[in-house]
Amino acid sequence: MIQSLADGILSGSIISLGAIGLTMVMHTLRFANFSHAELLSLGAYIALVFDGVFSALLPVLSTSLGGLSLTWGLLLAFPVALLITGFSAMIIDRWVFKRIREKGEELSMVFASFGVALIIRNALGLMFGLETQLYSDDIAFAMLLSQDPLLIVKPDQVFVLGLTAVIMVLLHLMLSKTTFGYSLRAVAENPTLAAVSGVDLKRVIATIWILGGGLAAAAGIFYGLTNNISPIMGRDLVLPIFAATIVGGIGSIYGAVLGGFIVGLAANMALLILPSGYSPAVPFLIILAVLLVRPNGLFGEARS
Length: 304
Prior knowledge:
Blueprint lengths: L1 H28 L8 H20 L14 H30 L4 H23 L14 E5 L2 E4 L1 H23 L1 H11 L1 H6 L4 H26 L6 H16 L4 H18 L10 H13 L11
Antiparallel strand pairs: 1-2
Helix pairs in contact: 1-5, 1-6, 1-8, 1-9, 1-10, 2-3, 2-4, 2-8, 2-9, 3-4, 3-8, 5-6, 6-8, 9-10, 9-11, 10-11
């Protein structure tokens, strides 16, 4: 049970990063973006490409950091992947969602997000193949933290959990201590009033896409470090990410973080009593339960 709890915390942290960007977009632009999970795949593969480029240019960068499977090349590729994925999300909005949004077709934006998801997924499959890939073939030996109860963790998992915590703290400081954080909340609550008050709507929306895309890329890279990457990883993660967003409450960043941990813990704890094939159904059950008991989520508020 302790092992499942530890694994749930790790997977929950990754889901939380993906859910933060989704909840910001859903609350601000008022549509369910089903292509958001594909940004995890996009960021993971961008990191894979630049890891190979950096390692080819400077072979010493292909060496691992201590007991981690993480290489120096991948560490340098990390911020590059975040930036490229973030700006890619902004470009997708300008080319697709903005044009539909200006016509007032909110439902059409949802359908368009399905199309964008399919395009990204199949493009990655065409370029990289459908088989799973690893960032490194080096074996990172697990650490035995306890024998009774049994608790085994990999150094990569500890690294991912620690870096995720740092990212969340930085995000909290940015949203609570900067002008952008106040602008974001104003736009989310009332875009018209925010614009009248002097908030640059276009700049705030563009920043939301960049920030959400970057966080999704981080989640995708972390998932690849602790598991593997494939073109369909976004499809597999879309339901847990939506479940975390709904559980926490649409528009609540802290709710998305808590929702991610709840979904991750529930999915892993369910493995103690259910066959592994039924585990993907747990996020769906969580969504149904929350919608029945508290439709606005744990931290969400009713909106007009």
